[in-house]
């Protein structure tokens, strides 16, 4: 456990969370997640972002502080860029250890400190342009970044070291271990974190994509040398790489996204799967890359990431008791909540004694800004004519993804 210097007065601390618990109570993190905090030292000491009491995180933080000769009692200012409890859950305990530390957040953040933790004293509300002078020439400034991820969010800027403490923006799932900086990870490890940053974005941030673009615009003009997020890698060598990646993700929301197809499927007794195989044959014939996830066997967290990134979707599901296959109904609902918009979509599936999925599906996808191809349903096992039609539909979808939708 140690602190990682970003400059002679700025340190990264991180608690690695290794658990089968779910992030936000929803999202699996089989490869963990890091909760990053930062110390900025002038004559006074600021701690930026805290932890929740989760798998020993406060102890990890305490040990890392001790490695640079600091204890929680030495903190003069606790800056809370964002009040979600992954960064603040241990606040009452911190305040009990160090009642003199001033807590700094936006006006909305201060209200959340009061409502979540019933702390009413020693709070300072800041807004864009406000500064905090730590002495010894160290001055931090604040920029509100509402809805990246909650409405009270802000980022903190240290012009001296060129470090942007960005909270949830530019973060990812995945624990860090004994390295934190972008230049300390191999290309293969970066591939892992890229996948996990997409999944993090699709699960946590995608609904707020418009605000991500706005926040990035606000940062123009800053000479950023280091992006220091509250989860994942600290970017000191190529800080703009993660900024550009996030902008790309933000723009997926309204499409077009990547020239890929995300296949999401469920099948009770294999008849929908047989039909899907014909669709896949068509997609493969056109040479378009695709991912494939089965629901409910694979968690919707991964389905979201694949769907968010792809321009085309195949949703293959049978009718189940006069309606949609329930795990697919859930997947569609969560895609709606997470703004998986702007896709070209092919829905296929079988029915047993009577249909019904079609009607519920059409109602469910309203408002999703999807371009839906004519869907294909069949009774029982697909006949040869059905399979030929399904293959042709797979080809058609793949061509649209390759070439882009036709102009109207
Ligand atoms: Fe990492 Fe929105 O909290």
Give the DSSP E fraction (strand runs of 2 or more residues): 25-35%
Number of helices: 12
Mean pLDDT: 96
At CATH level 3, the topology of the largest domain is: Metallo-beta-lactamase, Chain A
Named CATH architecture of the largest domain: 4-Layer Sandwich
- Total number of strands: 22
Which hetero compounds are present in the coordinates?
MU-OXO-diiron
How much helix, percentage-wise, in residues?
Answer: 25-40%
Which strand order spans the largest sheet, edge to edge or round the barrel?
1-2-5-6-7-8-9
Principal-axis shape equals elongated
Biggest sheet descriptor: 7 strands, mixed
- Radius of gyration (Å): 24 Å
**Total tally of structural domains:** 2
Assembly state (oligomeric): single chain
> Mind telling me the CATH superfamily name of the largest domain?
Ribonuclease Z/Hydroxyacylglutathione hydrolase-like
Low-confidence stretches: none
How far is the first residue's CA from the last residue's CA? 59 Å
Q: Given the helix and strand composition, which structural class is it?
A: alpha/beta
CATH level-1 class of the largest domain: Alpha Beta
Structure description:
- With about 400 residues, the chain is an alpha/beta fold.
- It folds into 2 domains: about 5-250, Metallo-beta-lactamase, Chain A, CATH 3.60.15; about 260-400, Rossmann fold, CATH 3.40.50.360.
- Helix content is about 35%, strand content about 25%.
- It has 12 helices and 22 strands.
- The protein has helices at about 55-65, 85-90, 90-95, 105-115, 185-205, 210-220, 240-250, 270-285, 300-310, 325-335, 355-365, 385-405; strands at about 5, 10-15, 20-25, 25-30, 35-40, 45-50, 75-80, 100-105, 125, 130-135, 140-145, 155-160, 165, 225-230, 260-265, 290-295, 310-315, 320, 325, 345-350, 370, 375-380.
- Helix 1 links the parallel strand 6 and strand 7.
- The radius of gyration is 24 Å and the shape is elongated.
- The termini are far apart.
- It binds MU-OXO-diiron (FEO).
